[in-house]
Please model this.
Amino acid sequence: MEKCNRNKELFSQSRQMIYDSIMSSPGIHLRKLSRMLKISKTTVSYHLRWLERQEYIFHNSYGNYHQYYSSDVGSKEAVMLSFLRKTTSRIIILFLLNHPYASQVDISRSIGKHPTTVEFYLKKLLEHEIIKHLSVVNKKIFYDENETIMECIPEGNGCFYTLVDPFFTCALMKKYKLIF
Model:
């Protein structure tokens, strides 16, 4: 793992272990760091604040949930990693990697989740531009009202979802060795 050298005299062993854990598990949260390293949450929190002030790391907040990333992780990567850490959204993303142009019903049936649950996660993924919504009319896929993307195989008309950037998703999973 990369060592932080800027302020060597200020870098404790605990802080280095926390930083190394964030480097190897981007998007990790406080409680998991505390359990994994067997360091109290208060101590981990103290070191996380220090690391943030020194700009070694940053965090994204989702409600009361903070996920920590090294400063070399881009914001687009951080958003995607956040979704890949959550079981249901990860399953949906993996499903869409293997089945582009899937409907909510297809996703729901295939992953064994209630349609309302799938709808909740699809909305979150849409909000963060991880997936996009496509319309199918007369076997033509439309991204918006005027632009026909392609003739398609899906039966019937309706709403389908696909990943905005499947290549980015795969590259990110490979980079961080995310195999599920």
